[in-house]
Amino acid sequence: MTPSERLSAYHRGEPVDRLPCVPIVGNTAARVVGAKVSQFRGNGKLLAHAHIEAYRLFQYDIIRIFTDLYTQAEAMGATVHYPEDETAYLEKPALASHGELDQLQPADPYRDGNLPHHLEAMKIAVDKVGKEVTVTGALTCPFTNASFLVGAEQLVRLMLRNPEAVHRLCEISLETNLRYAKAIIDAGCTPSLTDAMSSCTVISPRQFQEFSYPYLKRLIDYIHSRGKSVTLHICGKTNRIWERMVEAGADCISIDNDADLLEAKEKVGCQVRLMGNVKPSEVMLQGTGDDVRKAVLDCLSKAYDNPKGYIVASGCSLPTETPFRNIHAMLDTVRRVGYPVDPEKLERLSTG
């Protein structure tokens, strides 16, 4: 089956050869084509080539065009540092203080920063392999993007001292999100949502409800209005906001390795598909092929029977230097288990 055929059949409850599997390949794609990570900047053709070749090499089920979390913030004026061969990081927020809010403008995805190059990569990937595999474009959600506009520490202070400024930041950030989501969908792709700063590791559930949820829901509502489903990833501990993530409209929740798949299944598995959560660093980067096999089998034992479905995946984007053999090991394990999952076979493989 092609990945598109597999996902469509699985969604309809029809026979499939195996569960969908998505090692979340980010800048590891550079290694597949012998490129440096910094070469992706301003080069949509290379970015597309790398992700297409990574998909062809590993045969996973979803392509995600991604380099870093800062593409929208950079397009709105943030300064992003690009090491020669490592993932980019935020060097300076767009604003020195919230007093400069009136200067902030939503980004134009066809003109500003690296957004046009990411869109070019998406279009190329859709043109070349879009008939056989779903192509998604990474989109950093309103609250997290807002933290890159004014700085995470200042945003936390503003939530306590000037909540109205936070709402203004999120509103402008949402407008960029909506414009970029439209451009991603118009390119033939599906937005893939990431909201790292909305984690309970960073803010409280009450703060999530007040400052993140309203804007996240409006973004998801728009994506649904365009006929696309939504996968939402929030890093770190999220068990206290899983219900809110479902209420915001997520069709699939990507569970970070800091959370527990079994708990997620018990709490929200009747409402939403789950995805995750093999450890990206400890297992996928640093482990052996056997470590990967055991971790995948452990995740399967917890979530293969999730009522709304389950996608085997890493808990977050893979580190750039993740060994190819470990990505192959993840896919090979899922193929070996097959579908429907036989609990006795799963037990034998886990103890063998």
From TrEMBL:
All residue ranges annotated as the Uroporphyrinogen decarboxylase (URO-D) domain in the record: 2-336
The name under which this protein is listed is Uroporphyrinogen decarboxylase
| Segments forming a coiled coil | none
One Gene Ontology BP term is: porphyrin-containing compound biosynthetic process
Q: Which GO terms describe its molecular function?
A: uroporphyrinogen decarboxylase activity
Q: Which Pfam families match?
A: URO-D (PF01208)
Q: Signal peptide position in this chain?
A: none
The UniProt entry, under InterPro entries, shows:
Methanogen_methyltrans (IPR052024), UROD/MetE-like_sf (IPR038071), Uroporphyrinogen_deCOase (IPR000257)
**Phylogenetic classification of the source organism:** Bacteria, Bacillati, Bacillota, Clostridia, Eubacteriales
